[in-house]
Every structure is written in C-alpha cells, then in structure tokens.
Amino acid sequence: GRDVNRRDALKAGGVALGGLGALAMTNASARAEPWSWSPQGSVAGQGAGADPRTVWDPEADAVIANVLERHNVNRINAELRTWVRNGQEVPSGLPAELRDFIEYARILPPWTDHNKLAGGFEFTKKQGTIISVLYAFASGMMSTVIPNEARAVYYSKGGQFFKDRIAKTAKLGYDIGTVNAYAPDGQMTVTCVKTRMIHAAVRHLLPQSPHWPKQYVPISQDDLMVTWHSLPTTIMANLTKWGVPASRHESQGYLHTWQVCGHLLGIRDEYLPASWREANVQSTQVLKPVLAPTREGIRLADDLLRLGNELDLTLLSKPILGAFTRFILGDKIANWIRVPREPVWSPLLEVSWAPYLAVRQGVLNVAPPMDNAYWMFDEFLRQFVLWYMSELRMPISIELPQHNRHF
Ligand code: HEM
User: Fold this and answer.
1) Whether residues 384 and 240 fall in one domain
2) Of 236, 263, 290, which residue sits at a domain end?
3) Is the domain of 97 the same as that of 126?
4) Does the ipTM surpass 0.90?
5) Using only C-alpha atoms, what is the Rg of the chain?
6) Domain shared by 162 and 78, yes or no
7) In the list 93, 207, 230, 357, which could disulfide-bond 142, CB 3.0-4.6 Å?
8) How many angstroms separate the CA atoms of 221 and 267, rounded?
9) With the C-alpha atoms ordered 21, 27, 33, 36, is the resulting torsion angle positive or negative?
C-alpha cells in the first residue's frame, strides 16, 4: 500500500510541477519593472514607447501563418534555397504574398550608413577570431540562461536538430562580418529576412506544441532585444574588459552592423539603441534581470559543450569549452548550467588570457613568462577556427520549419 501511495504522490507532484512550469512560462519574462527605456535613445529617435513585451511582428506573422496553413512549404523551402545573395531577385516560384513581404522586408533602413558599415568590417577583419569566440561562449552559452529563448529553442524543431541549428546561427555570425554583408553581392540581408520568417513560423507553431502554453506567443520584441543584447552589447563589454583596442570608427561600425541586422529581423526602430551608452542602459533593464536557469537551458548547454567532440580536435573537449564558458560568463551562470571549474584551464584563463591577448594585439611586445599558456591559447584558437569553418563549409539553408520538436 505504501508503495502505491508513494507512486501516486510522485505522480501528483509531477502534474503539479508541470502546471507550475506552464504558469511560470505564461508570465512571459521575469522582468518585474515596467518598460521605461525612452524611444529618444533609439535609432528612430522617437516612438510611442509601448512595452515591447506586448509587440510581436504583425507584418511577418500574418503572412507566414497563412503560408504554413495554405501552401506547399516543401516547395517554398526549395525556392528559398536558391535565394542566397542580397542583390538576387526573389524567386518567382514563391506565392505572391510571400514575395511581396520579402520585397518589403529586404529594404535597408533609411538610416543605413555605408561608411559606418565599413568601420564594422574593419573591426571584424582585425578581431574576427576573438569576436567569434565570444559569439560562441558569451552569446551562444548565454542563450541557455535566457529562459524564454532556451524554452523556445528546446521545444521547436531546432532543439531536436541542434547541430544543424547551430550551423545556421553560425552563418548569421559569419555573414554579418563579411566585407559586403549588406551589399548586393553579400548574404546578410537574405539571412536576416529568412530568420525573420523563421521567427514568425515559430510564433505560429510553438503554441500548437503540447509542451507550450497556448496563450503565450513566443519571440516578442522584448525577447528579440534581450537576445540582441546577448550579442553585440555583451561582446563589446567583454572586448572592453579585455582591453581589446577599437577605434571609434570600428566600434561605431560594429554597433551599426547590428542595428541594421535588428531592423532586418523585424525589430522596430524605436527599440534599437542609437549608441553603446543607450545599449548598455537598455541591456541592464531587459537582459540582466531575466537571466535564470531552466531545465531546458541546462540540456541545451550540455548539447552545446559536446559539439566539439565530433571532430578530432583535442582542445575542444567539453571540459575545456566549459572552462571558457565559466571564465567568460562567470561562476554564477556556470553553476546554473552545471559547468564545473576545470583544474588546468580555469586558472590558466584567469591568470594568462588578458596578457595573452595583449601580446597577440601587439600591445605588449615582450611575452611575460607564460610560454606554455601562450601556446595553448594559440592552439585553442586555431582549433576553434577549424571547427567553425568546418561548420560553415556545408551548404546552409535557413528554411521554414513545419513542426515542433518531436519527443
Ligand atoms: C531561428 C537568429 C532571437 C528563437 C533562428 C535562426 C537564426 C536566428 C539565424 C535560424 C536558424 C534555424 O533555422 O535553425 C536570431 C537572432 C536573434 C534571435 C540574431 C536576435 C537578435 C530569437 C529569440 C528567440 C529565438 C528572442 C526566442 C525567444 C528561435 C527559434 C528558432 C530560431 C525557436 C527556430 C529553430 C527551429 O525550429 O529551427 N534565430 N534569433 N530567436 N530562433 Fe532566433
């Protein structure tokens, strides 16, 4: 009798927990403070000031919902595969309403400044390797402690085909750093518009998942800005902390590449910060307070740290990738996602990473007594770039999902 009771109690507990989880999720975001960031600090310089938690992407959402419900999505994805370069015509085989949307969505914002974009490229040319390390260990790993994002990724198709998803995300990080990112022969505009369409598809599909509360539509403008700050704002903060030099032209340019990206992803101009100062203010309000562990995020973090296992690159083992994560995101977040300290690499990073970067930048020209560390970091970066480039070598096509994760 006692066993049955215990089993029943466990079952009841499970149900109650499930209910609580769903309730917590409908609470959308853990930001307790009302939205107070002024649109005067945005690239638009003005706006109605609506809380971005109440705004999604109506233009894309209506079109994509209709496409998913009424059209042959396999055929549409086959057409989208042929649309690669920014200057290319939109494939004629797409339904007219989707073509019209793409023609509208691909237009660069009127405030695009090509001189600034050139500065952004200068920065990537000089610091590309360190920036891509930060995309992976600052932004990528941080996404696992942004509850709304971690849950959306986990319960969508991308959570199931995770390696594929990472390759597609890596493509965006690569495209934004190319010399012609937003020019006719580049690919970033196409990547952004496709991603905007994917996000609209996720808004349509996720509420149909039995694991998702129906009334909660994912990827609000607030969610988009939270994730945006996990990218450029977080990366610039780390580069500054590490003393990586950036001229004004480079730093303004890097910000601008991400402002244009945000616009093309469907973020309203009134939410996109006009300056690093405004970005930091907004990030403190929207990103910092929502960071928290979730069951889903812990699983995704584990998947991410195992991605390096597949190639024969000895320094990309889970413990070493974990050490970088702990070093960059700090002990609190590393503990949340159960990434332990690594006995060799953790102290090595704490003591020698900053001097290593200074030597690498030519800021210090005499290497302090750290030959071994210097070699290890060089070798790590070499293997990291090999891995990253191998992810990008296969043809990557960002396509509309037609279902959620299957369990
Ligand atoms: C898909 C980038 C914000 C959830 C994608 C893809 C990219 C991307 C490149 C395509 C990858 C693929 O097709 O698998 C970005 C960027 C963002 C952003 C640059 C902000 C600046 C968000 C936010 C959420 C989110 C805020 C959730 C709260 C997803 C999901 C998918 C996706 C669920 C689809 C995965 C799938 O089922 O295939 N995103 N994203 N994203 N994104 Fe985002």
Assistant:
1) no
2) 290
3) yes
4) yes
5) 22
6) yes
7) 230
8) 6
9) positive
> How much is the pLDDT for 392?
85
Residue having the nearest C-alpha atom to atom 28 of ligand 1: 149
Residues of the chain with pLDDT below 70 are: 1-30, 364-370
pLDDT at 368: 59
> Does 405 map to a domain?
no
Is 339 domain-assigned?
Answer: yes
pLDDT at site 3: 41
Side-chain half-sphere CA neighbours of 21 within 13 A: 16
For 137, the token pair is 């260990």
Q: Which of 29, 145, 153 to mutate to test the pocket of ligand 1 (most atoms within 8 A of CB)?
A: 153
Pocket test for ligand 1, best of 195, 229, 258 (most atoms within 8 A of CB): 195
Give 200 Cα–ligand 1 centroid separation in angstroms.
10
Distance 166 CA to ligand 1 centre (A): 10
Atom of ligand 1 at shortest distance to CA of 218? 28
CA of 126 to the centre of ligand 1 (A): 27
Joined together, the tokens standing for residue 169 give 């995300």
Please tell me whether residues 310 and 283 are part of one structural domain: no
- Please tell me the distance from the alpha carbon of residue 260 to that of residue 153, in angstroms, as a whole number: 24
Tell me the backbone φ, ψ of residue 405, rounded to 5 degrees.
-65, 135
Q: Which residues contact 354 (CB under 8 A, 6 or more apart)?
A: 242, 243
Residue bearing the CA closest to ligand 1, atom 34 = 158
Query: Both 190 and 336 in a single domain?
Result: no
Are 214 and 227 in the same domain?
yes
How many structural domains does the chain have? 2
232, 34, 40, 247: which is closest to 126 by C-alpha? Answer: 247
* Residues framing ligand 1 (Cβ under 6 A): 148-149, 152-153, 156-158, 165, 168-169, 172, 195, 198-199, 202, 218-219, 223-224, 227-228, 231, 265, 398, 401
Distance 60 CA to ligand 1 centre (A): 14
Residues 257 and 350 occupy one common structural domain:
no
The last residue of one of the domains, among 290, 308, 334, is 290
Inter-CA distances, 340 with 281, 309, 391, Å:
31, 17, 26
Which atom of ligand 1 is closest in space to residue 223's alpha carbon? 26
Is 317 within 8 Å of 309 (Cβ atoms)?
Answer: yes
For residue 401, being part of any structural domain is answered with no
On whether both 303 and 278 belong to a single domain, the answer is no
- How far, in Å, is the centroid of ligand 1 from the Cα of 406? 18
pLDDT at position 131, please? 97
